[in-house]
Amino acid sequence: MDTNTFLAQLQAAVRQLQAQAETELAPLDDFTLNFKPSPERWSVLECLEHLNRYSRYYNPAIAKALQQVPTQAQNASVRYSWLGRKSITLVQSDNGKQYKTVKHMNPVGGNLGREVLTEFREHQAQLLTLLDAAQCADLNKKVVPVEFFRLLKLGTGEALEFVVRHQQRHMQQALRTKQQATSARLALAV
């Protein structure tokens, strides 16, 4: 896929994430934001905190990569390595498999409040800025270290797509949890 189309699709996805956070999650009360379908499942805020933890690493790593990579020929194709394809496939929202997250990225047990939503919104704005900056960068240059094993590197384009797809996956999880909270509240009212 050419760079312009690739980046436009990612920008549209991030704008959709922003809209979902604003319209679907920001208006929720504390009960719904903190509702856990079961002890081992995440609440809405835990889903977003997990994404915030990844953004705290990947947004600066991608920003640094964009400063280091050379400019690319106009509208070149984005290429994928085996590691990039595998990483993106694992986090696709239509991949129904559940995976354990690394311990330091697991938000369970934290005392979370609405500031998690604020931080999530800030990270989305930063990501849109990074996607704009990526317009003229060589997205195939492998300069973004993988968070849990930094000797492995993703291409800048692969890292951008990984971040966006990962966020889509957990936004869907947060929206499902919101629905479960609504159902639980209705059951309590009966």
TrEMBL record:
Pfam families on file: DinB_2
Source organism superkingdom: Bacteria
Regions annotated as coiled coil: none
Record-annotated DinB-like domain positions: 15-174
InterPro entries xref list: DinB-like, DinB/YfiT-like
Name under which the protein is recorded: DinB-like domain-containing protein
Organism: Hymenobacter cavernae
Lineage, highest ranks first: Bacteria, Pseudomonadati, Bacteroidota, Cytophagia, Cytophagales
